[in-house]
Design brief:
The protein is built from 20 helices and no strands. The chain is mostly helical.
């Protein structure tokens, strides 16, 4: 099959559509600080907030398949995906205002039920908008050479986003307000809501030319068969690629969220190093090297395939994370201030740049690989179900994010932080050091090992995906000719 028959996108479409993930991730970043708001300003216990984040997954388990079903059956005037972009972003904005601007004003007797209710609203908004990130990938492009570009743009923008957020919080808002106060959160949510809205609009513009029936109505082998929840269950049981990618996504996401948790950041930079502003400066210093590493990673993915690139990057992450842990254990972390060329500064910056750059390569392979699983299901069974695959991704994303929060909350509770959270500038103890190393180094390494094992059974290498996309191009041409 001639590659010219692939559904390709313009580069600007791939780039702008990647901003939808940045839009939802801004809200995810903001929710990483919910423990400081709920505990420090509202008076809820750390264990309660951490457990609630995981407990809400029961509710989420009902919303995700519903949103996926709605997307798979959406054939409206404004396309299959765009209505969900707008609705999800609006719900997220409202939920953040309610959580951070009103919870502490609610009477104490109903404060916890109210917090649970608005937290549930956040879950719904994140699902509605975030599901589009993965599901719309399938109509944006199915060219195996183009799909890794989405991973590049996602990683590229994520570097700017995470660096910007870290710098804004640690070098501007915390010094400005003297900590995470009401005023701190009031200004932070304004930044998040405005920027997230602009990013959503960019994604809306990018997907609009492809969000039309001609790009998704000719991908089913049997158009008369209804795709219901029974079919969804059959797909989950038989799509080995999707199963293995879910396991890898779980463990990879867990590694990222535990290591990046705000409490872990406070313990690592604010207590062990004793200089919390290093985190913000570090993000700026490492941005350009991380972009260079990401470019090499995506170029390799276009040549060798996404699976091989993902496995290689994961192995390198394990080695670099272990080396970083040894540096903290055997060196003096208080000498890390980024103001000299001493051994600790140089060694830490080199390892940190390499680890984060390579970790971005692997993590940004996930969404294009999810799109591959959607195409593989067309090849395997004839069913086009981007909503199903996307909601599985969304469910796993939120489940692991919240589970990471619970792990952090429970471990800091073990060392005495049951009703409070670690604060910047506290005295370093052995228990704080050990727990920080377990969370920052140990848990990610364990997650990556499991991820590599799962990839042993993932069938979609570069050659197989070429076969899958050629089949889909032939199927679409056949369906168009039959009309």
């Amino acid at each position: 099959m001639n590659e010219k028959e692939y559904n390709r996108a313009k580069i600007w479409q791939i780039a702008l559509f990647a901003l939808n993930m940045m839009s939802t991730n801004l809200y995810l970043f903001l929710m990483m600080y919910v423990s400081y708001y709920a505990n420090g300003l509202v008076g809820m216990s750390v264990v309660f907030v951490s457990t609630l984040a995981t407990g809400m997954r029961i509710f989420d388990g009902f919303t995700d398949p519903i949103i996926g079903w709605l997307i798979d059956h959406m054939k409206g005037k404004y396309g299959k995906f765009r209505p969900f972009l707008v609705a999800g972003n609006a719900i997220l904005a409202v939920s953040m205002i309610l959580i951070y601007k009103t919870t502490h004003l609610v009477p104490e007797v109903i404060r916890i039920p109210y917090f649970i209710l608005v937290y549930a609203l956040y879950i719904i908004g994140y699902t509605v908008q975030g599901t589009v990130t993965t599901s719309a990938q399938t109509i944006l492009t199915n060219d195996p050479k183009q799909r890794p570009l989405y991973g590049f743009f996602t990683g590229f923008f994520m570097l700017f986003l995470s660096s910007g957020v870290n710098y804004l919080i640690s070098n501007h808002l915390v010094p400005k307000y003297g900590g995470m106060t009401y005023e701190f959160f009031s200004e932070l949510i304004v930044w998040v809501i405005l920027i997230a809205f602009v990013l959503m609009v960019c994604a809306f513009v990018a997907i609009a030319p492809k969000d039309k029936p001609e790009y998704y109505e000719n991908l089913e082998q049997n158009k008369t068969e209804k795709v219901g929840f029974k079919v969804y269950w059959e797909i989950l049981k038989k799509n080995r690629a999707l199963q293995m990618l879910i396991i890898s996504e779980c463990t990879d996401k867990l590694a990222m969220n535990i290591a990046g948790n705000s409490i872990v950041g406070v313990m690592l930079f604010g207590i062990i190093m004793g200089n919390y502003e290093v985190m913000g400066r570090l993000s700026v210093i490492t941005m350009i090297p991380n972009i260079i590493l990401l470019v090499f990673g995506i170029l390799n993915a276009r040549h060798a395939g996404q699976k091989r690139t993902y496995v290689l990057s994961t192995w390198l992450c394990i080695i670099l994370q272990a080396a970083l842990g040894l540096l903290f254990l055997m060196g003096d972390p208080t000498k890390i201030d980024l103001k000299s060329f001493g051994f600790m500064n140089v060694a830490f910056v080199v390892l940190y740049i390499a680890l984060n750059g390579i970790r971005n390569i692997g993590s940004n392979m996930m969404i294009p690989m999810m799109a591959d699983c959607t195409d593989y299901e067309i090849y395997r069974s004839g069913h086009f179900v981007p909503g199903l695959v996307a909601t599985i991704y969304s469910f796993v994303d939120k489940l692991i994010s919240s589970f990471g929060t619970t792990v952090v909350g429970l471990l800091v509770a073990v060392i005495g932080y049951k009703n409070t959270v670690p604060q910047i500038g506290e005295e370093l103890t052995t228990s704080i050091f050990v727990v920080t190393m377990v969370l920052y180094c140990g848990m990610p390494i364990l997650g990556w090992i499991i991820s590599i094992i799962a990839m042993k059974f993932y069938p979609l290498n570069g050659e197989k995906m070429k076969e899958v996309e050629d089949y889909i191009a032939e199927l679409k041409e056949k369906n168009v000719g039959a009309e």
